[in-house]
Design a protein that fits this description.
By secondary structure, this protein is α/β, with parallel strands linked by helices. The protein has a single domain, classed as NAD(P)-binding Rossmann-like Domain (Rossmann fold). The chain is globular, with a radius of gyration of 21 Å. Bound molecules: nicotinamide-adenine-dinucleotide. InterPro entries: Epimerase_deHydtase, Lipid_A_modif_metabolic_enz, NAD(P)-bd_dom_sf.
Length: about 400
């Protein structure tokens, strides 16, 4: 028994961005599995400015058993000292708004790509005990999802829709052939699909993934990039208008405003519960496989944006229909949802939460959290000013 406790306490995970939405759930999951956990986070005001903080200045939801280091990963000295005693590294810290990345290009690239370069320099030059790495990538690296052409009997990885098509308000992906136009069928996206990142954020996430995989391999440290689909759950930054669609819609509904839906709202996404995401990271960290690769983490189910808006309104008991804007955001994709078979086959990981139950849990957390401030008009104004909404 004593031996088991000794063994477990030697596993010490450092989570960059561990005070954030996904990071804090991963803290809970790793503590539950017997890891020691250290969080390195600079507590970005855009994420934490409206959150409830404890007397020590950290979010109230962050488990007290986690050691905390307030610092910026852009500061290599902070990162070096944070690695003391660390055996497992999870890199989550990032600037995370797709739309915002298109109008804050230098900031995003500094905080995402440059920060990764600084961390990797430290890992390759200094002595440390890191034996396994997991890094958060994103479904955004795919650009458009995968499609099936019934006429050509093949799966396709089409580029983004043309401006000309979008100006006609013709939303679906099509393929020209034999004098006719075929509407393509969206199918689950597999990891092999060529990557076509369509925003600075997506390019930054591809950088995260490729830089960590390349250097991890060179250093002989097994490294896994998890391509997260749309995570939802408690502790989302509800007042941050640049985060996930579920949080933004909840914020609008609680303020008596209709969720704003781009295009016709029938675009399909994959919503995965944050606890499933945390379990995916923990599974990868605990694995003894010596693997370098990228894996989808989604629910494996698709759901339309309209349906999200209606489900949230029903659960919040608000009789408010979404406002379908018939406008589009430059660089937006039409459909993307995950094929989750690779992570199931490699790590025996399967998501466990269903969408209805997960959303109910999110709503029950929301009703106990501070009422969010609706800042979507600010983000819409910024996007319009940057000519990102048409
Ligand atoms: N939430 C999603 O749906 C989703 C989807 C795909 C990928 N991801 C990725 O997962 C990761 C975590 O996302 P999240 O939703 O929890 O975001 P979040 O904004 O809630 O958390 C990110 C945390 O990183 C911290 N941080 C940012 N820059 C930092 C820096 N330079 N130094 C130290 N700390 C810094 C922030 O203060 C914040 O606490 C990100 O890498 C994101 O790109 C998230």
């Amino acid at each position: 028994m004593e031996r088991a406790v000794w063994f477990m306490s030697t596993r010490h995970a450092l989570i960059t961005g561990g005070a954030g939405f996904i990071g804090s759930h991963l803290v809970d999951e790793l503590l539950k599995r017997g890891f020691e956990v250290t969080v390195l986070d600079c507590l970005l005001p855009q994420i934490h400015g409206d959150a409830e903080m404890a007397a020590d200045g950290w979010p109230v939801y962050l488990d007290r058993a986690a050691r905390r280091i307030k610092g910026n990963i852009l500061d290599d000295g902070v990162f070096v000292s944070s690695l003391d005693g660390i055996t497992h590294l999870v890199h989550l810290a990032a600037s995370v708004g797709v739309g915002q990345s298109m109008t804050n290009i230098a900031d995003y690239t500094r905080n995402n790509t440059m920060a990764t370069a600084i961390m990797l320099d430290v890992l390759s030059r200094s002595g440390h005990g890191v034996e396994r790495i997991a890094v958060a990538s994103s479904m955004s690296v795919y650009g458009e999802g995968e499609y099936w052409s019934a006429a050509a009997k093949t799966s396709l990885a089409p580029p983004l829709r043309s401006d000309e098509q979008l100006r006609r308000r013709s939303w679906e992906l099509t393929r020209e052939g034999d004098g006719s136009t075929e509407t393509l069928e969206p199918v689950p996206t597999k990891e092999e699909k060529p990557l076509h990142p369509a925003s600075i954020y997506a390019i930054n996430k591809r950088d995260h993934e490729e830089m960590f995989l390349t250097v991890g391999r060179a250093l002989g440290i097994p490294t896994t990039a998890l391509r997260l689909f749309n995570a939802y759950g408690s502790r989302q930054a509800l007042s941050n208008p640049y985060t996930g669609v579920a949080a933004i819609f909840i914020s609008r509904l609680l303020n008596g405003e209709p969720p704003l839906v781009f295009e016709d709202g029938e675009q399909q996404r994959d919503f995965v519960h944050v606890k499933d995401v945390a379990e995916a990271f923990a599974t990868v960290l605990e694995s003894d496989k010596r693997i370098w690769g990228a894996f989808n983490v989604g629910s494996g189910r698709s759901v339309s944006v309209n349906s999200i808006a209606r489900t949230l309104a029903r659960l919040l008991r608000k009789n408010i229909a979404p406002r379908v804007l018939n406008q589009y955001r430059v660089g937006d994709i039409r459909h993307c949802f995950a094929d989750v078979s690779r992570i199931a086959e490699t790590y025996a990981f399967r998501p466990r939460r269903d969408f209805e139950g997960g959303m109910e849990e999110l709503i029950s957390w929301v009703t106990t959290a501070r009422k969010p401030i609706d800042r979507s008009s600010r983000s819409m104004a910024e996007l319009s000013h940057g000519r990102m909404v048409v």
